[in-house]
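Table 4 source record.
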Amino acid sequence: MLDAAHRLGARRVVQASSSSVYGGADVRPTPESTPLLPRSPYAVTKLVGEHYARVFAELHGLETVALRYFNVYGPRQRPDAAYAAVIPLFISALRAGTSPQIHGDGHQSRDFAFVSDVVAANLAAATAPAEVCSGRAYNIAGGREQSLVELLAVLQQILGVETEAVHVAPRAGDVRHSSADLSAAAADLGYVPSVSFEDGLARTVEHFVAAGA
């Protein structure tokens, strides 16, 4: 993709990277300067992609901006995909009256980003001055750390159900906690999340109900 963008004269590429490049970061909220220690093959591919982007920026002058998405969620996210995310899985289970599955004790935490905020981040990364952002990576998240137990409680309240989770063994390679320092994205891209965790979940549930999912 980077080679094609260069050959066809594209000015800038905004790359979809991931918070997984940090691995189990000791510092939370985690800034972009944190050592990168990916713990899964997926995370390794994201880090390699960032290195490719940096090389193309240095060798060919192609403007590149990597966005390290934390846990993105929102309407139209599928619960039946091969690597389905936790929020659609929880909503689908609760609506069906079945117990959501939690790997581990449920106190692991994530920084959930609503999809419209992520769209805004991409537009900002595509248009920000090159001297500010080209060749850099930025965290994109909701700016609020939530445990899976807390997530489940909010969804139970929205849906008006009390179905409890079933706990299974933790998954190898899963990060225990994840939380983004958004100060660089705010300073350089003007990125400030506008959708609260509760409002984003309510909008997501509304879509599931309307779609009969």
